[in-house]
Amino acid sequence: RRTARVLLDKGVRLVFLASSDLTHSGPSYRFVPAGVGIEALNWAKENDRRLLRLVENFDPDPIVPEVREHSNACGAGAIAAMLAACIEAGATSARVLRHANSYETLAAVAPQPAVDAVGYAGVLCC
Known about the structure:
Layout: H1 2-9, E1 24-25, H2 38-56, H3 63-70, H4 76-88, E2 94-101, H5 102-106, E3 117-125
Antiparallel strand pairs: 1-3, 2-3
Helix pairs in contact: 2-3, 3-4
């Protein structure tokens, strides 16, 4: 928040961006709490949604503890910092635009067994 405030006070127009993969699920990632297959990938998407609901609640404080407990993002600090900066800049909400995983995204162009996947989402704060 402090960095955003300093820049805002200087009149700088800002756009905040954070990047993070979400749940990495499957043997390739050595993370198989729900096994493998479609049901496991559905579990991973719900694990992502736990975090995305917190993002949509627009409170950066529970983000890092959530990720530490549920392993549902690589960049918890970046997500929390981005939310805090958006709040400092006057944004009042966050909305998930799209949420998918790599298995779903590749299904049409490079079908593969439902074994490994990484979650992704686009979120807009305004």
